[in-house]
Design goal:
17 helices, disordered N terminus, about 425 residues, mainly alpha
Length: about 425
């Protein structure tokens, strides 16, 4: 079927559904990372004595698509940004917004996570001050299993999303002439022209090919250099987002198909779970890979369709949430670890403790962001925020900002 002519948004338009999906996805990430402390048999920085096996299945159901959604929405943002910026302007603006918080986070925010993990493992001596001096000097090598990334002397832990996003942004920015060429525009039109079953099936096929070729040879590591399978998946959905960003036709079709895609996603993941539960060991092969990748795309398509239907309006909380997402992302996992250290001695049990841990994390993110970070211009860039405007604020034309990542240098969350 030929593509429906796309309508470009006017300068006053803003995709409120993309902003809202980003904010709501981050709330989910906070709960997910709190649950990482309690899910049995999945390695994380610290583990609760109340770890539960039943948590593995809801966590798997989420983990098969949540970071893929994050990268797709980031691609949508780049699609808006690239309309008005060239290669070097994109690299400069995104470099500052992504790499400065990464450097600051690795030096100031992340070290406590590594310290807490190292002390819990018995491979790091208590005393955060001495640990921090050694960590920042990157001199003496750490025991390999002291903390995630110890072999490198310094770690980005949950901030791995930032270098990945910058790498994908740089690839698009450096090849902008290709994407704006007749061949590049033809590819974009072909993708955005998918309708009906084609839109629900064909985007999953490249994901399936990459998985069948790479997954068994390159398991997830969150190591930027060697994470070839995750790169293939994340960059593909990032490219999908870049293509669909300003096209109204494909968004209308995702909205129209939202009930179908949701029903198919539920059926696909149910089949996947039944097959896994019925197997003696973790099943593998083309059928399981097909179910995983089809579920991934159907779940993302459902969320985009329902979001476009119900969230594309200027919610009163949206402006605040849009500016809060990035600082909350940088802060939240360290606050979870600090909350664990605070609450664990009280032995509050498997219900009250996680509820308090989630509450403390949210309150801590809110207090530090609204009470400190947003108020000082010298702090704002360190958490990915632009300086405060002194005059009237123009209406933005693009949903931008980083999205929540998954924790750890080594992937602690099985994708299947």
């Amino acid at each position: 079927m030929s593509a429906t002519p796309a309508t470009l948004p006017t300068p006053s338009d803003r995709r409120h559904d993309i902003d809202a999906l980003r904010a709501l996805a981050f709330l989910l990430v906070i709960l997910y990372h709190v649950a990482m402390y309690y899910v049995a048999d999945w390695p994380w920085h610290l583990k609760s004595p109340h770890a539960a096996e039943w948590l593995q299945w809801p966590m798997r159901v989420l983990n098969l698509w949540r970071m893929d959604l994050v990268f797709l929405v980031s691609g949508v943002s780049l699609g808006f940004l690239s309309r008005n910026q060239g290669t070097w302007a994109l690299l400069r603006s995104r470099g500052v917004r992504l790499m400065l918080p990464l450097a600051f986070g690795m030096a100031v925010i992340v070290p406590y996570q590594a310290y807490a993990q190292g002390v819990a493992s018995g491979l790091v001596a208590p005393g955060f001050g001495a640990f921090l001096l050694r960590y920042l000097s990157m001199g003496d090598p750490w025991p390999k299993e002291a903390f995630a990334g110890a072999e490198f002397g310094i770690t980005w832990n949950h901030l791995w999303y930032l270098p990945y996003l910058f790498a994908y942004t740089a690839i698009i920015a450096l090849t902008l002439p290709l994407w704006k060429s007749p061949a590049g525009q033809w590819m974009r039109r072909r993708f955005n022209g998918l309708r009906g079953w084609k839109l629900l099936l064909l985007p999953a096929l490249p994901l399936l090919v990459w998985t069948m070729l790479l997954a068994r040879h390159f398991p997830p590591t969150h190591n930027l250099i060697r994470d070839f399978h995750l790169h293939s998946i994340y960059f593909t959905v990032f490219l999908y987002g870049y293509w669909i960003g300003v096209d109204t036709g494909v968004w209308r079709e995702l909205e129209r198909l939202r009930r179908v895609s949701l029903a198919l996603a539920a059926a696909t993941i149910a089949t996947f779970i039944v097959l896994r539960l019925g197997a003696k060991g973790p099943p593998s092969g083309a059928p399981m890979d097909t179910l995983r990748m089809l579920y991934l795309w159907l779940a993302v398509a459902s969320l985009l369709g329902y979001g476009h239907r119900h969230l594309n309006r200027p919610w009163p909380w949206l402006r605040w949430a849009n500016e809060s997402v990035y600082p909350w992302y940088v802060l939240h996992q360290t606050l979870i670890i600090a909350g664990v250290a605070l609450l664990a001695p009280f032995a509050l049990g498997p219900v009250l403790e996680p509820a308090l841990l989630a509450a403390l994390t949210i309150v801590g993110c809110w207090a530090l962001t609204d009470g400190l970070i947003r108020r000082f211009d010298w702090l704002r860039p360190l958490f990915g925020l632009k300086p405060r405007r002194t005059g009237p604020e123009p209406r933005a034309t693009s949903p931008e900002g980083a999205l929540p990542p998954e924790p750890g240098w080594r992937s602690p969350s099985p994708r299947a």
